[in-house]
Amino acid sequence: MTRLILERVTFRYPATEAPALEDVSLEVKGGEVVALVGSVGAGASTLLLVAGDLAPRVVGGRLEGRVSFDGDGPRAIVLPTPWTQLSGMAFTVWDEVAFGPANLGLPRDEISRQVDQAVVRLDLEALTSRDPTTLSGGELQRVIVAGILAMRPALLLLDEPTAELDPVGARTLWKLVRTLAGEGTAIVVATSELDALPAITDRVVWLERGRVAATGPAALLASDALVVANMGTTVAAVWRAAGLPAPYPLTVAHAAQRWERR
Amino acid sequence: MTRLHPFTLLAIAGALPALAWILPAPVGGLATAVVALALTLTPGASPGSTNTVTAVSPGSRPGLVVFRTALLTAAPFWLFLLLLHDLPTTIAIGLRVTTMVASFVWVVGALPPPRLVEAMVAAGWSASVAYVFAATLAAAPVLRARARRIADAQRCRGLSARGGLAHRLRALWALALPLILSALHEVDERALALETRRLVPGARRTSLSPPPDRGAERLARWGLVAACAAALGWRLR
Asked: How many CB atoms lie within 10 A of CB A251?
């Protein structure tokens, strides 16, 4: 069973005294989607790097507290800038998606199976023979996500995964996140696309200046504290701005129901 | 030429400079420089690909672009040599340097990094070591492409690289600084991305499509090594 545990984690980047994360505790199990929300510099990306065993191992810095991970697959992160995640070692999109599984040393037929499945999931069939360097930002983002999925990660860490995607691509990705969770993958996502979260997340963690300010179900995104901090859903913010009474609706559907009952 | 095994291409690119320095000047250097420059005229580099030096001049004849790149890269060395030495020494060293530059430019154009990685992995090298080799080949074209993008962006913001020397130097600074900073930033992100995709030291990567390594090519490679050793022996006699 996949399980990520962060216990009282404090992390400082090299040559800095101020912690990027401070006293953060979090547990994520297989099949769960946890969303990290917060303003720029709140520590969401750092938390993903720590959870992905990249900080401090690769980026350097000092870590206090305990991070443990159990799972029957690797933990993998999708970073927000797809063009820096290209391997540079692939002639085609198919090769690019296969880069990770090949590095895992899997047999060729298994790599082939996993790559084909990831390609279908990200709707990349028409692009498989294209040179990855000629793709648009959105296409590239889907290729990078496919490359990560082809590794069959037990823990998937997504940092602003829809930043380069168009609305249709973003909806497809969020649906895929839910599907993956249904298959047992543990998922932690840092995103500023707050309106998408009620449909996909099991839990929301609000980070402020490296600390966990609040944690709770998706309904937290309609709480007064998050709405005031501009971390709530658009519907909740509009409801509040209109002077309508709390509790604020979380989604358009909730708002419609509330409006009809008025 | 590009159908040759990556190791054969590397062997040629390594043997030519070695022979240029081993064989007596200026004839040895002249012969190797002519061969190296002739190689840059062979159709090899694919235009439009960021993996190749030809990407710098889309629409141009690939061979000619590689040839021109080799000459333009070697030209400053000749100038410096002429300032430092007499004419015979300049010619002797210049031809050798030209061989080195032309060989490197040619192999960068003719050898796509992914093929090199596949060949090295198939030969039992660690994937991360193979990546370092391939990234070295890919670095120059990638940096040139980025420099072009930065130059375009700076031009949109009103920077002009025309005018007097002082003006051009100021423009160069405005181009070089973002290039260096963005390259450093990208190194960090790329390291994270490669790490998460398990390109780690000691990883035993599965070779997806290893390039065929024919017996004749293996023989030719050993032949090049033998030729360099024989030339060295002859010179040390």
From this structure: 19
Residue type, B119: A
Q: What SS3 state is found at A31?
A: coil
CB of B135 less than 8 A from some CB of A: yes
Q: How close, in Å, is residue A158 to chain B by CA atoms?
A: 12
Give the A:B interface size as CB pairs under 8 Å: 86
The 3-class SS string of B5-66 reads CHHHHHHHHHHHHHHHHHCCCCHHHHHHHHHHHHHHCCCCCCCCCCCCHHHHCCCCCHHHHH
Number of residues in chain A: 262
Contact at CB, A81 and B189, closer than 8 angstroms: yes
Q: Which residue in chain A is spatially nearest to B189 when comparing CA positions?
A: A84
Q: Which tokens in the block code for residue B9? A: 């291409």
- Residues 6 or more apart whose CB falls under 8 angstroms from that of A207 comprise A24, A36, A37, A38, A42, A43, A44, A47, A213
Alpha-carbon span B170 to B106, nearest angstrom: 33
Q: What is the pLDDT of residues B97-131, one digit of tens each?
A: 999 999 999 998 888 888 888 899 889 888 888 88
The shortest C-alpha distance from B150 to chain A (Å) reads 16
In whole angstroms, give the CA distance from residue A224 to residue A235: 13
Put simply, whether A105 touches B (Cβ < 8 Å) is: yes
How far apart (Å, rounded) are the C-alpha atoms in residues B215 and B155? Answer: 53
Residue spans in chain A of domains classed CATH 3.40.50.300: 3-216
H or E element, residue A197: helix A197-200
User: What is the tens place of the pLDDT at every residue in A68-118?
Assistant: 999 999 999 999 888 888 888 888 999 999 999 999 999 999 999 999 999
- Return the domain boundaries, chain B: 6-236
Degrees (nearest 5) of the Cα angle A76, A144, A230?
75
Residues of B in contact with A94 (CB under 8 A): none
Place of tokens 């609000």: A206
Q: Look up the CATH number of domain A3-216.
A: 3.40.50.300
Q: Is the pTM here over 0.90, yes or no?
A: no
Q: How many residues does chain B have?
A: 237
Strands (DSSP E) found in chain A: 3-12, 21-29, 33-37, 62-70, 75-78, 155-159, 186-190, 203-208, 211-216
**Closest residue in chain B to residue A110, using alpha carbons only:** B206
